[in-house]
Amino acid sequence: MLKGEMLEKKREVVHLLGECVMACNHCFNSCLDEEDVKMMKECIRLDKECAEMCQFTIGMLHKSRFVNDYIELCIKVCEACEEECAKHPQDHCKHCAEMCKKCAEACRNFKDMFRK
Questions:
Q1: What one-character DSSP code corresponds to residue 66?
Q2: Rounded-to-integer distance, Cα 62 and Cα 101, Å
């Protein structure tokens, strides 16, 4: 892969990681405003964990030799958050699930570039 292509893929994954951070933080805050917050407990926990993992991964993409390990963990956290958010009917949960799915897919594609 050419250096310019790699840089473009990195920009794309950073953008989607950032979008996922915003979606998870929005869902987290919106879940806290729900009538039955107890029912949203796992969603809230995963929203926070996913936002933090995505933010951390953004920082590590540029400077860590363990980037593939971080990306793999980020994929797992995004998938868990997607699965939990998909259980809830609220719009903020649906949007978060969709962003987590897109983010995990982008991370997977980025990671796969190094296997070729």
A1: T
A2: 23
